[in-house]
Amino acid sequence: MNSEYQLWKEDVEMSFLGSLYLLEAEEAGSAAEAAVPDDFWKPAHQIIFSTMRLLVMRGIPLDLVTVKNELLDDGNLEKAGGIGYLMQLGETVPSAKNWEAYLEILKQYTYRRRCEKYAKQILSLAFDDCENSEIETYVEGGLPKSTRDLSPILFKDVEMTESDTAVPSHSPFVNAISGGGGYVKGQVSVVAAGTKGGKTAWMSNSAL
Question: d(Cα 164, Cα 181) in Å, to the nearest integer?
Fold first, then answer.
């Protein structure tokens, strides 16, 4: 494929994932909340990021051992490229300080893939036997703001009963400020963060 039309960058995806190994807990949390699995084109990278994000949300530090064990427990280690590939991610990242720059590039390619998907849908309508009004409505509607599916954050070992008042968040900070040990039933929560701080992704995943 011509680089002009390339829809992903392997080195950028690897660098962002490698950065998560090296960031301090708070910054790793910000990075994990700011991205979603569909920001990665390579299936192995989607698996690795989903695992890293899950660990962060459970308050578990990210390193080669924790990520490897989680992938192993879920039966996804080989799909993620194996232990050798996990080590390679940490060794090839130029600088963890640049994770925001890597994220911005990831988002640019995510948008390109969304545009490609939308264009293919329009072409499909154009060549299908459908009414002109249907095509016109679809085209004039414009590119959807989001065509990505946000994968829900999975809470492991959580069993709810009628008497429970909250779902554990696996985040000591969230558990402490909620007053109920997690996501309190019927409670309104306010999430504040700076631009690209991951507010939408965090709330969407929480709702899912």
Answer: 10
